[in-house]
Amino acid sequence: MAPPQKGKQGTKGAKQIVEENVSTLNYYRNMAIGANALSLIILVFYNSYISIFLYLFSCVIYIGAYQFMTYMAKAKYSDSGQLLDSGVDLNMQGGIGEHVKDIIILTAGCQLLASLVSNYFWLLWLLAPIRGFWLVWKNILSPYFFQEAPLQSEADEKKQRKLERKLRRQH
């Protein structure tokens, strides 16, 4: 095992990003297929309209999330086969790929728990909009609402003094 590196983390090469994206896509595809397969087997024996609807809804979420990740990670090659663009790194910390992977994990968890234990576990899906609101609040709304007032520039201070002198002369 290599010793831990100090300082700045090394950058990934384009080929490494492509390879890691392929393995990430395969992993999350297999997770979705496994959760769907087990849920479908249980759904055959215990079917209700709400279970069928939520199963189909989870399939739509899997397909949408997987297609979005595939679109983001699509590598571009030249006519000669040389890699031009590796696509977005799906494993980047804090990137959108991380949030899409979280949606797949949450959906698989909800689906398996609801299939094996109770339909009330579908309510865990409510964690997704709560997390989305939290991210929007933390990154967009909170800095906007709680930003400090802009400092007055020298030109503004001069204008203010000039205005005060005018007011004094009028009185």
From TrEMBL:
User: Its GO CC terms?
Assistant: endoplasmic reticulum membrane; vacuole
Q: Does this UniProt record's set of keywords contain Membrane?
A: yes
Keyword Membrane included in the entry's annotation:
yes
List residues traversing the bilayer. 53-73
Record's keyword terms, sorted: Endoplasmic reticulum, Membrane, Transmembrane, Transmembrane helix
Report membrane topology.
Multi-pass membrane protein
Main location per the UniProt record: endoplasmic reticulum
> Which compartments is it annotated to reside in?
Endoplasmic reticulum membrane
In Gene Ontology terms, what is a biological process of this protein? vacuolar protein processing
Query: Pfam families from the entry?
Result: TMEM208_SND2
Family, according to the entry, reads as follows: Belongs to the TMEM208 family.
Q: What is this protein called?
A: Transmembrane protein 208
